[in-house]
Model the fold of this input.
Amino acid sequence: MAERRYYRVAGLTFSLFAEAGQWTLLTNYAPFGVSEADADEHLFDLSVGTFAQPADATHLFTDSAEDLMPRIEVWRVPSTGGWLFRMAPVRDAEECAALLVSPDFRQATLYIAQPAHARFAIDNATMLLFALASAPLCTLELHAAAVVRNDHAYLFLGTSGTGKSTHARLWQEAFPDAWLLNDDNPVLRVLPDGEVRVYGSPWSGKTPCYRPLSAPVRGIVQLRQAPANAMQRLRLPEAYAYMLSSSSGLKTRPEMMDALYTTIVRVLDAVPVYLLDCLPDTDAARLCHDTINP
Done:
């Protein structure tokens, strides 16, 4: 039986309507579940179902930077002001799903063309909607790994293959009390009092880590593979560029770029950002920790 369920991530609530058979695939959402009675104003509502392709949908661009990364086609629907996103699991694969979204990103319907890719389609639809709908709320969905030690979080940025997961694992080897909050898509929020806090999410890449927990951010680190370990604090323009490249959002839309800019500037006012040239060893993890915590 189809039903609607409610979830809260980084203090923001959304709902998902899916068929019974699809829920068995979505165990990563369970730790974030809330009751309908406890669900406050929704960030967005997503329904898995069907829709007719808008006749006036116009292709804007395709996001497919790497061979083994998902392909997302972005289309505009002039008649409604809404959006259409077409998805494939990797750049050259056949399309497996399409997402029709309202102009404000708060209502969406997902059509899954290939049931074998239902988990991929639902995860990517919810990640996309969360990033787009939360951008005006001083919130960033980051492509990063997040580790917590002594009640403070450390975020590791970098392109796919840079070693974010490896560095997070090395922190846990170097510091037995460190633990992984999220391995690929944590959510960063700037709270009204200025505190920068990172939250776990239902989306964690290849490492299943779905923790509805959070911690204040002590430092953000851009990783770069190198023949020796070295670390430096970045100047604001460099830090901003790395933060923007790691943030999810519709960056061709001026209003969204304004929102991302405002949030990133507030983050940089409160949290230092570093560049770590590193080897895949525990010495790199110790250097990173000790530089941020002199």
The first helix runs from residue 20 to 23.
